[in-house]
Specification:
229 residues, alpha/beta, Spore Coat Polysaccharide Biosynthesis Protein SpsA, Chain A, 7-stranded mixed beta sheet, two-stranded antiparallel sheet, 11 strands
């Protein structure tokens, strides 16, 4: 089975709103509704679980009923940190080691069917799949003072990460087990955990899209509204 995990545990502090940014209404629906419906309607997705802060579990329950989402089978309590929300989903499905978990940020409402289809297809061959787009900017690596350039990596090999990120359950579970035993554990994203703790596991990259943007700042709202309309 392919199980979409909608990660919506964030509190949206950078937006300065009382409610998390995934509940912001754009083009007549909330951001999380736009994101979830892509997976609800995709033929390759068998089930959906939404990870949310415990204060908003009832909101998601009502939203699921209102939208008549048939694939939403679990509403999971998210953690304070992003990795804790991922771990909540991993623990919920650990009894199904051969299934696939497809993690997606709730605040990326413009993920396309094409991306989801390509991720599902890649999972037939690989145990770990990322979505990313090539960087169009030159990237500077600076020193600790952040005032001087140390090096300029070749941008032809640099990609900007997006979601979804997808894994066979037993693969991501093993990576997290090793990570949590590491006293120096630092979370970047789920692919970062696999890359560091399962270095022999190849992570296949599906080409993303510029429109698959993440709602982070207030300035993003106008652009998202135009794109969604």
């Amino acid at each position: 089975m392919n199980i979409a995990i909608i990660l919506a545990g964030g509190t949206g502090n950078r937006m300065g709103n009382e409610r998390p940014k995934q509940f912001l209404k754009i083009a007549e629906k909330t951001v999380i509704e736009h994101a979830t419906e892509v997976f609800e309607q995709n033929e390759h997705i068998d089930e959906i679980a939404i990870v949310i802060h415990e204060s908003y579990i009832s909101d998601i329950e009502n939203m699921t009923l209102k939208n008549e989402w048939k694939k939403v089978k679990k509403i999971l309590k998210g953690g304070k940190e992003r990795f804790q929300s991922s771990l909540s989903a991993i623990n919920a499905y650990k009894q199904f080691p051969d299934d696939n978990l497809i993690f997606h940020d709730a605040v990326r409402p413009l993920v396309s069917d094409r991306i989801v289809n390509d991720v599902a297809k890649a999972l037939e061959q690989y145990n770990a799949v990322a979505v990313a787009i090539p960087t169009t900017d030159t990237i500077f690596k600076v020193d600790d003072s952040q005032h001087f350039i140390e090096s300029i990596p070749n941008r032809s090999c640099l990609f900007r990460a997006q979601t979804p990120q997808a894994f066979q359950v037993k693969t991501i579970q093993k990576a997290f087990e090793l990570a949590l035993k590491d006293t120096g554990f630092q979370f970047t994203d789920d692919c970062g955990i696999v890359a560091k703790y399962l270095p022999n596991e190849k992570i296949y990259v599906v080409r993303g899209e510029e429109n698959n943007m993440k709602l982070t700042y207030k300035e993003d709202v106008c652009l998202l509204e135009k794109l969604l309309q």
